[in-house]
Amino acid sequence: MTAGLPKLVVVLGTTACGKSGLGVELARRYNGEVISADSRQVYKGLDLGTGKVTEAEMRGVPHHLLDVVEPGQPYSVADFQMAAYAAIDDVLERGKIPILVGGTGLYVRAVTRGFVFSGSKPDPALRETLERKSNAELYAVLREKTGVTLTGGEENNRHRLMRSVEKALSGSWEVPSACPRYDCLLLGVNFPREVVCRRIDDRLQARIDAGMLEEVANLRSAGVSDEFLDRLGLEYRYILWYLTGKIPTLEGLKDELGRAIKRFAKRQVVWFKKDRDVLWLDMEGDFLTQAADAVEQFLQA
Q1: Rounded (to 5) percent helix, strand, coil in the chain
Q2: Helix axes 77-93, 105-112, angle to 10 degrees
């Protein structure tokens, strides 16, 4: 916690573990509003595949930073940070409690730590050259130029690797400095590994039954590029592969996508466990009371 700064409640953690529901419940109890911290839910039309909270699930709680850009439009962590700051400050100015909810680790950390990003712009010519390199080759270049070590799956995040290497080669690379704007309470949600895997399987089947395959097909029909869908990863990449025949059967899709989501969940745990300030809730116990008690103490401090 950082005394003297405006207060921000943060709900973070593993996919399929109930972040959205907890965020809504806390917002209802403490006159709050939710700010989404999800790198795919910012896009319009990406609903089932991202697990975007529905209007019914919001239960009257205002949500911010959902459906803010068109599919295919560039949107960086710096763009998100700027928009999140504006939304959080607006909530605070209206006397309400901002609750940041999401599982995109870099988005969460950009706000909670207050990273200061450089203003460098992408170089299209350099980007075209780098597109020909594998993730391993990009990471090798980054290590050579900066000495930085990436963990928790970031070494395989192609979009961020590309931007980092662009900055390193253009001479604009710098370790992000931090200037925290908020006093943050970090609440973490997670279950034992076997429970997470079961919840992922159940949710995947429910989303398929609800029309997730059709959602991706409709996005393609509306002109969203296969390149963009592939870059989104997980549901959109694997369903694209199924629709284009790379994955031949529905059972094969469910198997491959389910395993990919479980690997992603494991990387999320590794990422968030680095934050020693996180209060990990007992999700198999009375986690709601535990969270509410922590929020009350935080707000009264």
Answers
A1: 50, 10, 35
A2: 50
pLDDT tens for each residue of 248-280: 999 999 999 999 999 999 999 999 999 899 999
For the chain, the C-alpha Rg in angstroms (whole number) is 19
For tokens 């950009």, name the residue.
110
pLDDT band for 139, please (50, 70, 90 cuts): confident
DSSP for 262-295, written as a single string: HHHHHHHHHHHHT-TT-EE--TTS-HHHHHHHHH
Mean pLDDT to the nearest integer, 208-217: 98
pTM of the model: 0.85
Place of tokens 């399987």: 201
Question: Regarding beta strands 115-116 and 177-178, do their DSSP bridges make them parallel or antiparallel, or are they unpaired?
Answer: antiparallel
Nearest CA among 97, 153, 53, 83 for reference residue 298? 97
3-state secondary structure of 48: coil
